[in-house]
Design a protein that fits this description.
This protein is of the alpha+beta class and 92 residues long. It contains 2 helices and 4 strands; from the N terminus they run E-E-H-E-E-H. It has a 4-stranded antiparallel sheet.
């Protein structure tokens, strides 16, 4: 995965996510909505074969970078929990 900042200002961040699918970007956008400071969270894909997906974050307070970092940390925790539950299920 390679990230490239496409647009950045005080309340908006658009990041291109090379090497990942829209499924990954949808998961991140969904988690961003769990932050009360996020007023827009989505992903865009200009062309399915010629472009990379982009995550769009707009906030009402705070920085969009922090919102994205916090969402990534929450997702990391959820994935770790999933791995633990998966391991338990396999041992039964």
């Amino acid at each position: 995965m390679e990230l490239k900042v496409v647009k950045k200002d005080d309340k908006t961040l658009i990041v291109e996510v090379a090497g990942e699918s829209v499924t990954f970007c949808n998961m991140v956008a969904g988690e961003l909505w769990n932050d009360s400071n996020v007023r827009e969270a989505t992903y865009v894909l200009d062309h399915p074969q010629l472009s990379q997906p982009q995550i769009v974050v707009k906030v009402s307070r705070g920085s969009p970078e922090n919102a994205l970092r916090k969402a990534a940390a929450r997702l990391e925790k959820k994935v770790a929990e999933l791995g633990g539950e998966f391991d338990k299920a396999l041992k039964k």
